[in-house]
From TrEMBL:
Protein name per Swiss-Prot or TrEMBL: Putative membrane protein
Membrane topology: Multi-pass membrane protein
Gene Ontology cellular-component terms listed: membrane
Record keywords, A-Z: Membrane, Transmembrane, Transmembrane helix
InterPro entries documented for this protein: Rhomboid-like_sf
Localization annotation: Membrane
Major site of localization recorded for this protein: membrane
Transmembrane segments: 6-32, 44-61, 73-97
Amino acid sequence: MSIAIGICLIFFTSMTTYFGLSGLLHGLFGYFSLKKTFRNCLEGLFLVSFSVIKGILEYIYGASELISRIIGAHIAVEAHLLGLSLGLIFSSIEFFAKNKHLSISKEKE
């Protein structure tokens, strides 16, 4: 996942350097939260919803200036959103690959 985040940052953002694990952490959080949702766990649905809302609001309004001052660096909001998106995509791919019998279109015998 970290390689995919790095490639997406290169091609889809104007960032030239990125140091940190925040994108990967957001991706892992999204991945396991959606995995929990697929197991019919209401907590997982809450976590996915909260993560998506947080990511969108952070992208629209920017990261907290206070946190940016505390860590002394720019917060890579793009990495957070890309990591979360990729985590959700990877979790969905895994779920549907393992559960091919749940597909909407059934083959006629």
